[in-house]
Amino acid sequence: MTIQDDTTAAPAPAFAHMLYPYTGAQAYLDGTLAFIDKARAAGATVVIAAHDQRRALLSEHLVDDKDVVFMDTAALGRNPGRLIPAWREWIGQASAHGSVHGVSDPAWRWPNSVYESEARYREWLLNRAFAQTPAWSLLCPVDTSGRDAAQIAALARCHPLVWNGTAHQPSSDYLADAYRFDELPDPPPGHQRLDYTVETLRALREHVADWARGYRLDATRVRELMLVVSELSSNSVRHGGGSGTLRLWSEADALVCEFRDAGVITDPLAGHVRPPTSQLGGRGLWFVNQLCDLVQIRTAPGRGSCVRIWIDLPGE
Amino acid sequence: MTQQTTTPWALEAGEHVCWQARSESELAAGEQDLAAHAARAESGLLIVGCPHAVAASETVSVLDPPPAGSLIAAVHERVHAARRDGRRLWVLAGMEHLTPADAPLDELVARELDLARLAAEAETSVVCAYRAQAWKPSLLGDLVPVHSRTVGIGVNMAGFWLRASPGGWALAGSVGFESLRAFTAALRAALARTPELALRCDEADVIDAGAWRVLVETVSEVPGASVRLEKANETVRAAWAMTGYAATGVNIQVRP
Q1: Is A225 in a helix, a strand, or coil?
Q2: How far is A33 from chain B (nearest CA, A)?
């Protein structure tokens, strides 16, 4: 990772989104508390979205302050696609009192590299989502122990700024223009493949429901999956050339459904922001992000769209 | 949800059946079967606008020609008169002879809801016969969901069902993109009859984002209208919450 000299760098963006790479609990505390102190000294509200261990650690060292607020991250589930709407809501609640600074540390570890890859993309997407939102910053602490240099470098590409424990500086590693997605691996041999059109949407929903019941998904989760299938397959019919292809398979702890069609999703924030109440429509991908445990979208002109959704299987 | 039984004419009280026949001869044969089943069930049969393969008899009555503009009233009167006499009277309606095949979907659905309500309130059975060749397949597909089940071709076509019950209306199945035209027509017709519409949803699985939009738009079109979804499952309630439409003040309630 390269840290630019602050005096020669371009001005920081309105939304100050910074990575804080640290090693060890003491460094975590020192750097995060310094960020919080600085924010409070400027009269800002601090919103902290941290998992239980970090919340406990920070609470021990923070004086009682009504303007330092901890958010419940458990309700988010493990879909990193819910981070952006969550921060929108949290900022909305806190910004009535002036500027807001956030600490984002919601997951101890993502379940696997697939989740971690998508979490990185959502970190990058935060810069787009909040580009026009003034007066807030977000610190993303990342423990470097147990992570290799490539993982840290990948995270640095998603954050325009780096926090060094006392101040932030621009990062030359940041990908300002376009995100480089990880390629999606091919489905395993033996996966199911179903082509669909408007005539077969109902049968498609019911097929997927029957398939999911075979993996002991409970009735509510099966219905939620049916709703997701309804949204994504109808998107193909409406916007993806009138038809699509669904591929189904199971991973060790999840069911995966992949929808491919000829359409292109032009708005990278689709599904990450609920349309305003004045806008009727446009809620399909929003539903999908709220209901699935992971959503992977790859879309490009000439290549069409691929949406893979993951539904966690119940534990034994 | 929909089932093709080996004896399709074993009708239950309150049933409103969509029968799609392949041909005139299938229609005539079905009419005879239905009359035979009615006799076995000790029920009368009122035939309205059908080719009359069955002659009028002690148990079969024929409304021919159906009175223009007052079909439902005339059928209603006969069914309730039979009921007052302690008799059951099934109804077979030949839709081809009662409604122009090029009538708008809204008009056809409205007529079907009236027949559904008649079946539910009079605790009788109404069979709506459609000769498939006389109707557009897409139109027939849109009419299936406003019946309680289907006989003949078109079985298992519907994603959702809007059924009449003695206490009101019930929504069953799943409402997705393929059903939006039928769902819109069904809602409009139901709201025209019952502006404060209560829908039992204990057999409804999912309502997708497009269907919620249709619901909001349709309720907003009718001054003073409201819709209450009752006994909605967790998924239906969560989907409604996810839409955020409640914040617009639209008169829709979704309850467990």
Answers
A1: helix
A2: 36
Helix, strand, coil percent content, chain A, rounded in steps of 5: 35, 25, 40
B138 touches chain A (CB under 8 A): no
pTM of the model: 0.92
Buried b (16+ CB within 10 A) or exposed e, B119-140: bbbbebbbbbbbbbeebeeebb
**Contact B216/A280, CB-based, under 8 Å?**
yes
- Contact yes or no for A201 and B245 at CB 8 A: no
In A, which residues are within 8 Å of B239 by CB distance? 227, 287
Give the 3-state secondary structure of residue B195: coil
* pLDDT, tens digit (0-9, with 9 covering 90-100), for A262-281: 999 999 999 999 899 888 88
**Where do we find the tokens 């919601």?**
A106
Specify the residue for token string 């035209």.
B181
Question: How would you class A214 by CB atoms within 10 Å of its CB: exposed for 0-12, middle for 13-18, buried for 19 or more?
Answer: exposed
* pLDDT tens string A94-130: 877 788 999 998 765 666 789 989 999 999 999 999 9
pLDDT digits (tens, 9 = 90+) for A136-191: 899 999 999 988 899 999 999 999 999 999 999 999 899 988 899 999 999 999 99
- SS3 of chain B: helix, strand, coil, percent, to 5: 40, 25, 30
Q: Are B22 and B132 in contact (CB under 8 A)?
A: yes
Give the number of A-B residue pairs with CB atoms closer than 8 Å: 78
Cα–Cα distances in angstroms (integers) from residue A65 to residues A54, A60, A93, A254, A290, in the given order: 17, 13, 17, 41, 32
DSSP single-letter state for residue B43: -
Rounded Cα gap, residues B235 and B219, in angstroms: 21
Q: Which of B178, B206, B217 sits opposite A227 (nearest CB)?
A: B206
The CA distances from residue A153 to A149, A179, B210, in Å, are 6, 14, 41
- Contact between A170 and A10 (Cβ < 8 Å): yes
Give the CA-trace dihedral at B171, B168, B12, A210, to 10 degrees.
Answer: 10
pLDDT of residue B26: 92
CB contact burial B164-184 (16+ within 10 A = b; e otherwise): beeebbbbbbbbbbbbbbbbb
The secondary element (H helix, E strand) that includes residue A125 is helix A113-129
ipTM of the complex: 0.92
Sequence-distant (6+) residues with CB within 8 A of A45 are A67, A68, A69, A94, A95, A97, A98, A99, A100, A101
Distance separating the N- and C-terminal Cα atoms of chain B:
22
